[in-house]
Amino acid sequence: MSKYAELRKIDVSNNIEKKNGLSYLSWAWAVDQLLQLDPSATWRYDQPMAFGDTLMVFCTVTAFNK
Predict the structure, then answer these.
(1) pLDDT at 1 over 90
(2) How many Å apart are CA 35 and CA 37, to the nearest integer?
(3) What is the C-alpha separation between 38 and 31, in angstroms, rounded?
(4) pTM of the full predicted structure?
(5) Half-sphere exposure of residue 45: CA atoms within 13 angstroms, side-chain side
(6) What is the C-alpha to C-alpha distance for residues 24 and 20, in angstroms, rounded to an integer?
């Protein structure tokens, strides 16, 4: 099984958090899971864009050489 396939099989249901009616995974938890399977994974943040009171953040993740 590929490392990506292993990552896809992780049951995240016990780590889902809720805030303002939205469900999400903690970035720290998700990165920890990724780095366990690909210690060379990287990420970078690009220039954010403002839309009134809202800020859109762009993040590029490289993992499993993709």
Answers:
(1) no
(2) 5
(3) 10
(4) 0.78
(5) 5
(6) 11
